[in-house]
Automatic annotation (TrEMBL):
Protein name, UniProt field: Nidogen-1
Keyword Calcium in annotation: yes
GO molecular function per UniProt: calcium ion binding; Wnt receptor activity; Wnt-protein binding
Region of interest called Disordered, as start-end residue ranges on this chain: 274-331
Signal peptide: 1-24
Gene3D superfamilies in UniProt: Green fluorescent protein, Laminin, Thyroglobulin type-1, TolB, C-terminal domain
């Protein structure tokens, strides 16, 4: 395919996205329902329930249910619901509930109905499988065996049924559907909300109106012995009606209005898991994924017409009389671009609340906040003006980032007559969505719900998107597009006259600025008549140009446009219309220089694409836009002044062939100090370095370190309380918000501990100890338990049970087996910290579970090792934990690994994985966690997240995520902790650098930023002062090392590597090991000796790797597993498959106690003022990069 053809295919595939995104779910796309499908009908009325005995159980949270209860009020219960007065307006409920759309509903008027049935037909199960597998694309495909289909049809609010309000609201009705699909070990809830079926969002509760609710609640669960408490729950909606309306407009399954959740698993359950396919901006892979859905045929003029899979039209009635035929596979469009779908936010007219800005005669002192966050305010003699900063463009009130794609949303209203028809087609809040690729001026516009008798005739009106194209047109050197001049608040009034019959159409578009979603808001009104274009005809619009003339607060333009209508019979007809428009706006009257815009500019429009999709009732336009000289493209592209045959300024050549002059290379210091020069065709552009901005002359860069916005949270210059008590949240500009952490109270700058012991949290026979941010409970002497429950009956501890089992029992009392090791227990029943084998004379340290801590064993005659006391076996309970379904890390050594928005742990018994005790330790939905590291001193886990991007930490004994670094990151991946020097190291594969920071993120320093391409894995050896990292650059992969201060860098391995993803270092054996997804091997070497050897071959796709003793543990993307390898034997010895089969990322070992050893930085920060970094010969004292104005001393190593 030629380049032009590829371009058309790309544009056409982007339009394909609109076919799905602007089309809402319809009733016709429900799972089949009604009496002909075998449905039962719930008795009509209010708050009525019907028990349904199931052929196969439903899994809900960690329970199995053979009976469920269908209720009028929009939910399914796991037990007989109590009276509605006990649960209306309350989420979570006190009983197990799946709330499809829970409110005070009524079917007593004879119109509304609730249908329900069990279904195991292949068609229904296949339809359920499609919805589930689309929502969880990374998981193994699910094949349900049983389904429950519940459909609420035309149900009304009880208040509207009981009391006619006289305002028409009694006619509002909702329709929605719940499908519970179950396999042997998993159950899913599929929720369907049609756009036209969601007519009200709240019902009356207790005399006030409350938003309806969707979500899941386990209900009350047992607590201690004689009491209960609220169990886990999951809310889909909030207390606001907008969240209810969003159910029909958004998705987590890749299809608007369809929501999928994993609600129960067996034998283990962690939490409700939402579908993973939400709307995201398009990426570079969009073309290849979407193009498979479209077939193309050439236009006569060389363009393309794209034909899409047919879509089932909107139906106002459900399938009441249709036989049960299962899903309509041929009529349903499936989204395959699930993870990268562009996000479209539908904005109702009532939600548009963009204040119209006006300048006044005041100064910046009181009006600086009226400028954009990305603008500076400047005072003039008559008042002030706002100006966008370098890197942004706009009118200063609204500034957008250069090169960033722009989105527009809005509504279309009005009346349009077609041909000679005496009756108009009326518009009423039809959706308009637009997407602009700013880097090339390509604009796309889609309008929904256009009936077939009008749609073909609107195809010539690409003018509907013309002003959008002008606003974000590609700027030729020296010219500005519309948004650069007037921003996003203006009104465009256009008149279209069709020749020769003089039909006229007026188009009014009001642009109301940028909303909270960072989308431009536009309202469009159409009034008039258009000539008819027959159904089945296609329209091709020739390239055209349009002259824009500028004056104060007014812009006018006009053009004549030709278009060709191709009929079904092969004939074609060329038609013409004239276009005139006026744009009104408010400029800043105080800056005379800002008015120096060219009085006349020309908009050139080509590659115009139009299409009406009758199946989906969509009209789509696409066009490329450039703004430049009125002499046309010849002034820029031919680059010569034809009379003399000379090249234009900024170009060189003989007049026939002209070449751009690179002023940045040929003119020394073209941009002056503190700036960089960017060459552009025919000109060049100066940009100030970070920390500088243009002075009033527009050329000189002056320092603004004191005036420019500062993220005080990242810089550590905020006045919030210490990080152990408060959290600093950056809110833009130089602003931030201080908030107290859970367990503390105050305004954030001063936070005081909450004494939880005042509220009697512990058992009556326990003592409560208040701690900073939490509390502990411990049973009184003579009582035993976890502090939340205490009993006078003491059970044997783990140590005592272990000891007594080995001692056995005879008529002469306990008798140990000769030569056998028997543990010793302290007075509290806990394992003594040091244990010895009397027969062989060996002693060693143990953890709380009595397991030997590697590296602590001493031989005969060498005495007992110095062991850290592990404390009592029964630890005081600490509460509360952040989530009911997330477990604090228990005592012992564990593996920590990242998977699908969570961090999980697997306990180790010796070197073996205790797979049945694996749990989620931290739940981080919507995050993609790459690297994990563990601080053995504070028992904290650190991780990198590429979605924010950010680096965060959390206490594994309970507590939420605490941000550490959130700025100047692009793709943080590998992470490592120096537990002695109290620093963290990480790699950034987009910025291609390695950085270090203090554990709170305040002292930050770039160590290496050269000769890196794809750095990922990183580890440190604090005792010896070495750092190791892997670069999986496909052209030249390598493993490197340096001192921990970045000096003495050298390549360790560069030959016979493929994709070295993971690194681990075992200090006991001095072995550096790596996992390679290209060579499919694990290899090891001593970095000093260089004795490289293969530890394991024929592995599949390793990602993360860690070691513990003789074993290596790695995560594998193909097997979705944690795999254990005996490093010495070179064999795979065990495999752990997490309950949720999704991609696994980083893995690390969380030791029961810190490894032995020390370095210079372990005491008094090595005498350094800021960063202390260990080296093989001592340490280096380094200053952070942001140490300007701070007293910091750098010292060499010793």
């Amino acid at each position: 395919m030629g380049q032009q053809g590829q371009g058309w295919l790309f544009y056409a595939t982007l339009l394909l996205w609109w076919a799905v995104s602007v089309h809402g779910l319809t009733r016709a796309e429900f799972f089949p329902f009604g009496k002909t499908t075998g449905d039962h009908v719930l008795e009509q009325g209010n708050d009525l329930s019907q028990q349904l005995a199931l052929d196969k159980p439903v899994l809900f949270y960690d329970g199995k249910f053979d009976n469920i209860f269908i209720n009028t009020n929009g939910f399914v219960a796991m037990a007989q619901p109590s009276a509605e007065s006990t649960y209306l307006g309350k989420m979570p409920a006190g009983f197990g509930m799946i709330a499809a759309l829970h409110g005070d509903l009524d079917t007593g008027d004879g119109v509304g109905k609730v249908y329900y049935r069990q279904d195991a037909s292949p068609a229904t199960l296949r339809q359920a499988a499609e919805q589930i597998n689309r929502a969880f694309p990374e998981d193994d495909e699910v094949e349900p065996e049983h389904a429950v289909v519940v459909t609420w049809v035309d149900v009304a609010s009880r208040q509207h049924h009981d009391h006619s309000r006289g305002d028409g609201l009694e006619k509002q009705r909702n329709s929605f559907q719940l499908v519970i699909a179950s396999a042997e070990t998993t159950s899913y809830a599929i929720l369907l909300y049609p756009r036209k079926g969601m007519q009200f969002a709240s019902t009356a509760v207790g005399g006030s109106s409350q938003a309806m609710q969707a979500g899941f609640s386990k209900g009350l669960v047992k607590y201690l012995v004689f009491s209960t408490r609220q169990g886990p729950y999951y809310r889909i909606t909030t207390e606001r009606e907008t969240s209810v309306r969003a159910l029909a407009e958004e998705t987590n399954s890749g299809k608007r209005g369809v929501w999928v959740y994993e609600i129960g698993t067996s034998p283990y359950f962690t939490s409700v898991a939402p579908g993973e396919v939400t709307d995201l901006p398009p990426d570079t892979g969009l073309e290849s994924r979407v193009s498979e859905e479209a077939t193309s045929k050439r236009y006569p003029g060389g363009g393309q017409q794209v034909t899409y899979s047919p879509y089932e039209p909107e139906e106002e009635v459900y399938r009441k009389e249709q036989p049960h035929q299962g899903p309509h596979h041929g009529g349903q469009f499936t989204v395959h671009t699930v993870q990268y779908q562009p996000q479209v936010v539908v904005v109702d007219d009532g939600d548009i609340n963009v204040d119209v800005f006006s300048y006044n005669s005041e100064t910046c002192a009181n009006n600086r906040n009226k400028c954009s966050t990305f603008a500076d305010c400047k005072d003039y003699a008559s008042g002030y003006c706002c100006h966008c900063r370098p890197g942004y463009y706009g009118n200063g009130i609204q500034c957008v980032s250069e090169g960033k794609p722009q989105r527009m949303n809005g509504k279309v209203n009005g009346r349009v007559y077609v041909g000679n028809s005496p009756s108009p087609v009326e518009f009423n809040s039809n959706d308009l969505h637009s997407y602009v690729v700013a880097n090339d001026g390509r604009a796309y516009v889609a309008i929904s719900t256009i009936p077939a008798r009008l749609g073909p005739s609107l195809q010539p009106l690409s003018a509907l998107g013309a002003v959008i194209g002008w606003a974000f047109a590609l700027e030729q050197p020296g010219y500005k597009n519309g948004f650069s001049i007037i921003g996003g608040e203006f009104t465009c009034q256009a008149e279209v006259t069709f020749l020769p019959a003089q039909e006229k159409l007026t188009i009014k578009q009001v642009f109301s600025g940028i909303d909270e979603h960072d989308h431009l808001v536009v309202s469009t009104t159409l009034e008039g008549r258009v000539p008819e274009v027959l159904r089945g005809s296609t329209v091709q619009i020739e390239p055209y140009s349009e002259i824009y003339q500028y004056s104060s607060n007014l812009i006018t333009s006009s053009s004549t446009r030709d278009y060709t209508v191709s009929l079904d019979d092969g004939s074609a007809e060329t038609r013409t219309y004239q276009w005139r428009q006026t744009i009104t706006f408010q400029s800043c009257p105080n800056d005379e220089a800002a008015r120096a815009v060219l009085p006349t500019q020309m908009l050139s429009v080509d590659q115009v694409f139009v299409m009406y999709d009758s199946n989906n009732e969509l009209i789509r336009y696409a066009m490329s836009n450039k703004i430049g000289d009125v002499n046309g493209e010849n002034a820029v592209h031919q680059l010569c002044f034809c009379p003399g045959g000379q090249c234009a300024a900024g170009f060189t050549g003989d007049g026939r062939s002209c070449y751009d002059i690179d002023e940045c290379r040929e003119i020394p210091l073209a941009c002056g100090e503190h700036s960089v020069c960017n060459n552009q065709p025919g000109t060049f552009r100066c940009e100030c370095n970070d920390g500088y901005q243009f002075a009033s002359d527009g050329h000189t860069c002056i320092g603004t370190l004191l005036d420019r916005p500062v993220d005080h949270c990242a810089a550590g210059s905020h006045d919030c309380d210490i990080t152990e008590r408060a959290h600093c949240s950056y809110s833009g500009g130089s602003s931030y918000i201080c908030s107290c952490l859970p367990g503390f109270q105050g305004h954030g700058r001063v936070c005081q501990d909450i004494d939880e012991c005042q509220s009697a949290r512990c058992h009556q026979n326990a003592v409560c100890y208040n701690t900073q941010g939490s509390f502990t409970c411990q049973c009184r002497p003579g009582y035993y338990g976890d502090g939340f429950y205490c009993s006078s009956e003491r059970t044997k501890s783990q140590c005592e049970t272990h000891r007594d089992r080995l001692l056995g029992s005879t008529e002469y009392g306990p008798q140990p087996v000769p030569g056998q090791y028997v543990p010793t227990c302290d007075s509290q029943g806990a394992y003594e910290a040091s244990q010895c084998h009397g027969s062989i004379g060996h002693c060693w340290c143990v953890d709380r579970n009595g397991l030997e801590i590697p590296g602590t064993r001493t031989g005969p005659g060498r005495g007992r090792p110095l062991c850290i006391e592990q404390g009592p076996t029964v630890r005081p309970a600490v509460g509360p934990t952040p989530r009911p379904d997330v477990y604090p890390l228990p005592p012992g050594t564990h593996l920590l690994f990242a998977q699908s928005g969570r961090i999980e742990f697997v306990p180790l018994e010796g070197y073996n994985m205790k797979k049945t005790e694996a749990r989620t330790v931290l739940h981080l939905p919507e995050k993609v966690i790459i690297g994990v590291a563990y601080d053995c001193v504070e028992k904290m886990v650190y991780w990198t997240d590429i979605t924010s991007p950010s680096i965060s930490k959390a206490n594994l004994q309970g507590g939420g995520a605490i941000p550490v670094i959130r700025s100047d990151l692009e793709s943080p991946e590998g992470i490592a902790i120096d537990h002695l020097g109290r620093t963290l190291f990480w790699t950034d594969s987009m910025k291609d650098r390695i950085e270090v920071a203090s554990l709170d993120g305040t002292k930050r320093r770039v160590l290496i930023d050269t000769n890196l391409v794809n750095p990922r894995a990183i580890i440190v050896d604090p005792v010896n002062g070495n750092m190791y990292w892997a670069d999986w650059n496909r052209d030249a992969p390598k493993i490197e090392t340096s001192a921990m201060d970045g000096t003495n860098r050298r390549v360790l391995v560069k030959d016979d590597l493929g994709l070295p993803n993971g690194l681990t270092y075992d200090p006991q054996s001095s072995q550096l090991c790596w996992a390679d997804a290209g060579t499919h091997m694990i290899e090891c070497m001593n970095p000093v000796q260089g004795d490289r050897r293969k530890a394991m071959g024929a592995i599949q796709y390793p990602f993360g790797i860690t070691s513990h003793g003789k074993n290596i543990y790695y995560t594998d993307w193909r097997r979705d597993a944690v795999i254990m390898v005996d490093r010495q034997a070179g064999t795979e010895t065990d495999v752990f498959l997490p309950q949720k089969q999704t991609r696994l990322y980083g893995i690390t070992t969380a030791y029961a106690q810190c490894p032995s050893g020390k370095n210079y930085c372990a005491v008094n920060n090595g005498g350094c003022t800021h960063l202390c970094l260990a080296t093989p010969r001592g340490r280096s004292c380094l200053c952070p990069n942001n140490a300007l104005g701070v007293s910091c001393v750098e010292r060499g190593r010793y």
